[in-house]
Amino acid sequence: MSSDREMCGGPYGEVSECGDPAVFEVRRHDRSSLPVCPLHLGPSLLMGSGVLWPPEISLVARP
Ligand SMILES: [Zn+2]
């Protein structure tokens, strides 16, 4: 069943090539938060552009 859940933005937050539902949102500097799936949470913290450090992460959906 499809829903209005946000899709993962991928580890870089630029292109969405993942397609999984987002479970976390990573706050970023000067741009909108990056929605990511559990798999891409780690990579997005390390490689996403504008990610705050230390990271600020919100749980936005059930895994
Ligand atoms: Zn993903």
In short:
The chain is globular. It is an alpha+beta fold and 63 residues long. The protein has one helix and three strands; from the N terminus they run ββαβ.
Structure commentary:
The chain is α+β, with helices and mostly antiparallel strands and 63 residues long. The protein has one domain. The chain has 1 helix and 3 strands; from the N terminus they run ββαβ. It has a 3-stranded antiparallel β-sheet with strand order 2-1-3, with helices on one face. Strand 1 and strand 2 form a beta hairpin. The radius of gyration is 11 Å and the shape is globular. The two termini are 16 Å apart. The site of zinc ion has 8 residues, from helix 1.
Number of helices: 1
Overall shape: it is: globular
Mean pLDDT: 88
| Helical content class | 10-25%
Strand tally, please?
3
User: Strand pairing plus helix content: what structural class?
Assistant: alpha+beta
- Along the chain, the helix and strand elements come as EEHE
As laid out across the biggest beta sheet, the strand order is 2-1-3
State the end-to-end distance: 16 Å
Query: Number of domains in the coordinates?
Result: 1
Biggest β-sheet strands, sense, barrel? 3 strands, antiparallel
